[in-house]
Fold this sequence. Notes:
263 residues; alpha+beta; 6-stranded antiparallel β-sheet; two-stranded antiparallel sheet; 46% helix; 17% strand
Amino acid sequence: xxxxxxxxxxxxxxxxxxxxxxxxxxxxxxxxxxxxxxxxxxxxxxxxxxxxxxxxxxxxxxxxxxxxxxxxxxxxxxxxxxxxxxxxxxxxxxxxxxxxxxxxxxxxxxxxxxxxxxxxxxxxxxxxxxxxxxxxxxxxxxxxxxxxxxxxxxxxxxxxxxxxxxxxxxxxxxxxxxxxxxxxxxxxxxxxxxxxxxxxxxxxxxxxxxxxxxxxxxxxxxxxxxxxxxxxxxxxxxxxxxxxxxxxxxxxxxxxxxxxxxx
Length: 263
């Protein structure tokens, strides 16, 4: 049942700008598919060629799209990347969290990171790399499947089972190793254990030879809004290392939450 205060859909859409909507939808199309030819854009949008041509030319001129001189195809340009980083750097969680994860990195000698959830994926929004790190080629803006990473699981573990079922409707899960969950049911059981523990640990779940310890970050209302973790270039974490890292990551999470509760 809709709220009596909800704005009717017709009212919501009456002020939309069709040309702007068209351009933004096209950018999303490239974001989902990578490089596309002009013909492919026409086919996938169902728009007239003249309309697609004008939109593509406008986006290219503004550097939101770039043209591959060899293939003739188009892909997202530098302006999209600039917008993304401007957005990430403007987030309170990033501004507040950057010095916290840097201290966590210095204390543990392992890389530390902050992530947020975007659908089924996590997005790295801040990262402090360990000296000489060669464990994983990830940086700010990197996306990884949430279900096969510890830092993603702590973002998923507070979701209602109905929401998880909608996020993962397929019978089996991809992008996982032998250590990771193979089905949505296995994931739900794993998330239940994470929730009861209050944090997540993964050992070679996503990438062999890489382990992680992660904690959720909650706002003043108790909602999980981000996650913090350390990444360790080891296949298995000894019990004493698990304990010490869990303690340090939890301290960092609590420190960051104190700031979040005042925002």
